[in-house]
Design brief:
Length: about 250
């Protein structure tokens, strides 16, 4: 199916029989889940955090009385109220970690990564590459949101763009802050990429969309593959998940 043939009035059952892993039930995860609620896919949610009052402005599945409760329980409640059957919601009460990354990635058809830290973003990229799963990476920090699609068996990957944790990246999203609507924008775009990747034949490998609210600028680029990429390059150094590679304390919404 061509991208232009995707249903416009509803995405209901467009992804029937597919399984999607949503890493992080924060702002990006909430927006992704709301946008894919009627897609028919099985939604697998991985998180171990609780709802915090300071995040309510961007975590649209939660309410004031969700504060202090498990995000997964509150996300499930909200999804059921949106019409998602309980059997289409699977809760993984853990963060995406080196010891569960590959098995979780292998258990789904596509991964949506809305983590708030670089370590998890790199772990997602590596696990998805090794398990040959498509992955949509999302990020929103301060006034900029960015979404990148990486296809299985096709270059480039996340590490072609960000080889490793950027220097000075210790500031986390809670410290940096983020404009709430930008998170919703990025999450909706992540969901759109998932629909296009699984329900159309549109080539998306390496497509990156970035929006800056400061400059009112929406940019789309295709990321170039990096021949020296440690994951997908000519002489890759990453062929398995080693826990020590993902201990950097940095963060990126
Ligand atoms: Zn690469």
């Amino acid at each position: 199916m061509n991208h232009t043939q995707l249903p416009l009035r509803s995405s209901r059952n467009t992804l029937e029989g597919r399984r999607l892993l949503v890493i992080g039930a924060g702002g990006l995860g909430c927006a992704v889940l709301a946008a894919l609620a009627d897609s028919g896919a099985v939604l697998v949610l991985a998180d171990d955090d609780r709802v915090d009052l300071s995040n309510l402005h961007r975590q649209i599945l939660y309410r004031q009385d969700s504060v202090g409760r498990d995000k997964l329980d509150e996300a499930k409640r909200a999804l059921v109220s949106l019409g998602v059957e309980e059997q289409r919601i699977e809760l993984v009460r853990s963060r995406f970690l080196p010891d569960n990354a590959r098995s979780l990635a292998a258990s789904v058809d596509l991964v949506l990564e809305g983590a708030d830290n670089y370590a998890t973003k790199f772990l997602t990229a590596d696990a998805c590459y090794l398990e040959r799963r498509p992955v949509v990476h999302g990020a929103a920090v301060r006034f900029v949101s960015t979404v990148l699609f990486s296809a299985p068996g096709a270059r480039p990957c996340y590490r072609c763009l960000f080889e490793d944790v950027p220097p000075g990246a210790q500031q986390n999203c809670a410290e940096a802050g983020v404009l709430g609507p930008l998170v919703g924008f990025a999450g909706a775009l992540m969901a759109d990429f998932a629909l296009r990747a699984l329900a159309s034949d549109e080539p998306l490998a390496g497509k990156l969309v970035s929006y800056s609210a400061l400059e009112d600028e929406l940019r789309e680029i295709t990321v170039s593959e990096n021949p020296a990429c440690p994951l997908c390059g000519k002489n890759p150094q990453i062929s398995r998940i080693e826990e020590t590679r993902y201990t950097a304390p940095s963060c990126a919404a």
